[in-house]
Amino acid sequence: MKVKTLKTLRYATMLVFVLAVIRQITGASDLTSVGTASAALLLSVPIFLAGLGGLFSERAGVVNIGLEGMMIMGAWAGGMIGYKHGPWLGLVAAVIFGGLGALLHAIATITFGVDHVVSGVAINIIAAGLVRYLSTILYKSGSWLGPSQSPDAQSISTNGLPVLSGGKYFGWKSPDFLNYVAEKHWFFISDAAAILRGITGDLSYVTVVAVILIPLSLFILWKTSFGLRLRSAGEAPIAAESLGVNVYLMKYAGVLISGALAGLGGGFLALVAANHYQENQVAGRGYIGLAALLFGNYRPGGILLGAGLFGFADALQLRDSASVHALILLIVFVLSVLVVRDLRKKNFKKAALTMVFAALSLWYFLAVKELPGQLVTMTPYIATLLIMSLASQRLRMPAADGIPYRRGGLR
To answer: What is the CATH number of domain 2-160+202-410?
Structure first.
């Protein structure tokens, strides 16, 4: 564990250094600004929660394409209950409604053996139509501002970490050390301080809960008997059944946890990223959570990295198109690293192809001074496609994932 942690820190340091170099070359200050880091974290959390939900379901052997619909139900419930009874009860309602969507998926796939993809797509369609219908009823009754938007809910408090980001605890306000260093504009040191300030300052308590879910999920899935049984249901359900594991129960548990986390992600969008529910608020983040799950190779830390990449790209396109243009240099760097790796493995054909893409990316960066607006808006989704293409090279899904199960044997 210590070796993996040190390796992660080394990669993170190298990435910040590369971003600092690119910022120096291009002058795109938003690449490593406090605002970009803060926005990236805010945009990453709901995707991470959806991906983490997908992890529990797929580890239990049930493909959950319905994460999008469960997020939609969670966002709607969060907005509705949040403005009436406060944001915390709104988040609880979001978890419950996401779980209800998951229960429907579990009954269809586990009990009746419906194809997992068909069931998930149906839930996505049903959820979007259902919440629109319910919103229209509330609007006609005079309870909502419009057929697609709930009234505003009370905001959830934020705080910074003590000492690092000027947090206030028990009446004592700590100094904002990171912001002080970031404003010095020292190469790399100020860049690292700005990024740390962005992800540790003005944190919503819900964000803190989401971060805590990373080690908690690792512990539950790989250090507890429950996690072992759940994973056995997705890897070898017949063998698990022969050892006395209630495979049906484990699959139901995995799918329900999946829906609850996806619902929490929807509630986060309605009550933390915004302060009300709005139609199309989820905007495909459930599908992007699945892409993060693939990129992370069914591991919580990898899911967080995949969600962070999308959140970073999305934050840049919202803040500064010039910084998105500078990201092309980061792509060139990554492709160059892959070229070196392939050459070491003596995979010369792949190295040559990757080198061509790197050269084309560099040419495009030098030839185009400003990206078209449509391409800037598409940046997060292009990043998602890249995530999926990279993940396909090393994907290792559970052996019985997506295969209908019947007691006594697979069907």
So the answer is: 1.10.3470
